[in-house]
Amino acid sequence: MSQEPLEVGMLLYPGFTLLDLVGPLTALWMHSNIYLFWKTLEPVISDSGKAMVPTATLAKRPAKLDVLFVPGGFGTPAAMEDAELIAFLRDAARQSVYITSVCSGSLILGAAGLLNGYQATTHWAAHEQLKSFGAVPVKARVVADRNRITGGGVTAGIDFGLAVLAKLRGVGEAQFVQLAMEYDPQPPFDCGSPEEAAPAIVQRVREMIARLPDAQTAG
Fold it and tell me: Does residue 216 form part of some domain?
């Protein structure tokens, strides 16, 4: 690890999903200086009610980022309407090597005009919404199109983080981190996608998302 550390900026906002953020962070931290951005340095409450503490404000970001990252969450709709946040993303994207997201974070990138003409993915419940931003939806855990890299829903953030690390530091380093994390998923049930789950379960998830405040999109 003699290379200079990667400069990784990860956005926080009220109602983000912790695993959307922590999965990629865990995959990248050994190779990175990681900045957690928000408007202030006060704790930011996630959609599970637990908080993360920002390490930098939107106004105090590095001149250039190797990775600009946006998590998803039940706070996505409000974030998409936040003019200051959207302006930050547009400005930071101009000085970022890779512009990335996990889950419904791609909708926030879309709202900032950063996915127009790019293939992208998101949580399955929000997939079709990508079209409204000029993106081309692709059903995959991780989608890379030029310098845009997007991950699917929540747990796909780990796959995403390893894919980004492989691109920036090589497959060998990504494999090292994967083993160190013991990332060897063997889910107890075959219902991790709407294609595999029983229709009644899919409907329950859709109804849950529709009921939650600010939950027009999943996390």
Answer: no
Q: What is the pLDDT of residues 64-123, one digit of tens each?
A: 999 999 999 999 999 999 999 999 999 999 999 999 999 999 999 999 999 999 999 999
Q: What is the pLDDT of residues 140-188, one digit of tens each?
A: 999 999 999 999 999 999 999 999 999 999 999 999 999 999 999 999 9
Q: Domain containing 85 — which CATH number?
A: 3.40.50.880
Alpha carbon 22 to chain centroid, angstroms? 10
Expressed as residue numbers, the domain containing 159 is: 6-211
Bridge-based pairing of strands 56-57 and 51-52 is unpaired
The active-site residue out of 12, 103, 125, 165 is: 103
Number of domains in the chain: 1
CA distance 192 to 187: 8
Residue 219 lies in a domain: no
- 103 labelled catalytic: yes
